[in-house]
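User: For my dataset I need records formatted as: sequence, then structure tokens, nothing else. Please produce one.
Assistant:
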Amino acid sequence: MTENEKYEIPSIDIRIDKEGVWYYEGNEMFRKDILSTFFEELERDSTGRYVIRHNEQIFAITVEDVPFAVKSIEPSQDEQGREGHFNILLTDDSVETLDPATLRMGDDNVLYCAVKDKRFEARFTRNSYYQFAEHIQYDSDKNMYYIKLDDTIYEISPKG
């Protein structure tokens, strides 16, 4: 995309709020088939704007924070019954394995992680944060929050 092309992308009155709820012209979008299509067509352009590429057209949309939210999180066990990872349910109703190396803490202690092959970030909702908080540990000597999975420590990176 050239520098001139970035200004030629029309905007459409679609907004994703910080909880991952989609709106069109101020009204909440609830049709799963339409939302599913938009989630599949969601991209970031070379300037970092969020866009929907639909039927060879591209439209810029407004995203308050990040386009995905973690609705819930559950520990998952391996074949031996040990907690090996966490499954996260996202606002597009997909389930992914949490990549603990991508955890970071944002403003107001909001937790984020990378999703969709690290193409996007997801914000933990209050509910999912509380589900996950019992697994977060604190090392006062290092002033560091982390989780431990299979004897590996994953630091929750501070805002940055």
